[in-house]
Amino acid sequence: MALKVLIVMGSDSDFDQTAPAWKVLESLGLGFEVVVASAHRSPERVLALARGARETGYGVILAAAGGAAHLAGVLAANTTLPVVAVPIAVGTLGGVDALLSAVQMPGGVPIASVGIGGARNAGFFAAAILASTDATVAARLEAFREEQSKNVGDADARVKAKLAKGG
Ligand code: RP5
């Protein structure tokens, strides 16, 4: 059975900035679940999610949180599945705090991170992780890349046509 992606958001206020992640997963036909669990407001729920994730059939966890975002680190401390932080732009520091708390994890319990508001790329990165052991997912990613390249070629042709008309 294909492994799924677990998407954890620290708050429902993270919804809009996290949605691009599951939109990507949907477009690639991957299974996922979205849950709200907070490392500081519902720590037991976060622990239970992380500890049961592998057995539940997840292959990767995306952790979307803003502020002093320890969600990804706490999840990673309680599973050996890969955890990818999605720093959410909120508050005074606009997501810089969340980004730094993700990329400055002390050695031994690594997490990866996309950029601030990088949920779309988090979706693709989760797919790439699953693709490393799943040829079907790899083929879907490959098809997406081909389509994306084709779109660049089309954009190039449009620009050339515009320039030929005098800009
Ligand atoms: C973090 O605090 C959440 O991930 C969210 O980005 C931020 C603000 O949460 P709310 O106060 O809007 O619930 O834990």
Describe this structure in words.
There is one protein chain. With 167 residues, the chain is of the alpha/beta class. It has 6 helices and 5 strands. It has helices at 15-27, 43-56, 71-77, 96-103, 119-131, 135-164; strands spanning 4-9, 32-36, 58-66, 83-88, 112-113. Strands 2-1-3-4-5 form a 5-stranded parallel beta sheet, with helices on both faces. The mean pLDDT is 97.
State the low-pLDDT regions, or none: none
Mean pLDDT over the full residue set: 97
The major beta sheet can be summarized as: 5 strands, parallel
Beta-strand share of residues: 15-25%
Bound molecules: 5-O-phosphono-beta-D-ribofuranose
Number of strands: 5
Order of helices and strands: EHEHEHEHEHH
Structural class, by secondary structure, is: alpha/beta
Give the C-alpha Rg: 18 Å
Residue share in helices?
40-55%
Strand order of the largest sheet: 2-1-3-4-5
Helix segment tally: 6
Morphology call: globular
> Ends: how far apart?
53 Å
